[in-house]
Amino acid sequence: MKPALKIILASPRGFCAGVDRAIQIVEKAILKFGAPVYVRHEIVHNRFVVENLIAKGAIFVDELDEVPNDRPVIFSAHGVPKSVPNAAKARQMIYIDATCPLVSKVHREVEHHQSEGRKIILIGHLDHPEVIGTMGQVPEGSVILVQSVEEVATLPDLSMEELAYATQTTLSVDEAKEIIQALKTRFPHILGPRKEDICYATTNRQLAVKTIASSVDALIVIGAPNSSNSMRLVEVAKQYGCAKARMFQRAKDLDWDWLSGVQQLGITAGASAPEVLVDEVIEACRNHFDVTVEEKSVIEENIIFHVPKMLMEAA
Prior knowledge:
Blueprint: E1 4-11, H1 17-33, E2 37-40, H2 47-56, E3 58-61, E4 73-75, H3 83-90, E5 95-97, H4 101-115, E6 119-123, H5 129-135, E7 143-146, H6 149-153, E8 163-167, H7 173-186, H8 200-213, E9 218-222, H9 228-239, E10 245-248, E11 264-269, H10 275-286, E12 290-297
Parallel strand pairs: 1-11, 1-12, 2-3, 2-4, 4-5, 6-7, 6-8, 9-10, 9-11
Helix pairs in contact: 4-5, 8-9
């Protein structure tokens, strides 16, 4: 007889509007221009999604110089430095920007502050594509990257400078609040965004995990190790009462020894993980347990971002 397992699904989970739009952009570009269509970097951080798009005719490259001039190229949802579209224009390439509109909002903020003569402090993770893209909107040296409260203390004396801060969109909400508070304590005159930069999807997925973390024996985040928002969900689960929290990319990666003795299992998915991977994990659990499933929803999401006009007619 299989042991009983109650799965509690955190909701919202999985695809956000920005990820959905980026995938649609690749699919519609293939319809409009035919294969192959090139994509600079992973369109979103999920191997399953990338492999599906490769099967449809997408070719993923690291840099623009790997793309022939006569084929369209798409820039990933994380955003790119200005130098990338500038190089595409110089080569008279067809390019389509799949940057999430909420990341573009941060780009415009940073540009605005720089044009007003302010030094910008960006809260984010070193070498993350979104951070590279945001810092690349303005001249080198305009932005100082801060990754922790401890790093705020090591900043030079900027009290005589006009200052503003912005944040990566996929940070831990709680951690970002602490860093912002440390910045405001050290530099009371610092300006922030009118509406916070951490995106609605990151905030909602973290809230859903916070809601179930203390009531489950273990929590699985379906996502990729290079996905910032997925990594944050594991951290949030541990912080809010579920010490046994791990990320898995697919059902085939599950660790059944790790799940031994678990009676209540929380499941969520990062913003770039499709729901089919959640279904796959639940089905795999049914092979080992007598499974019941309950969904715990904290908020309804109904945000839609439209694809660029040039792709609208690609049905």
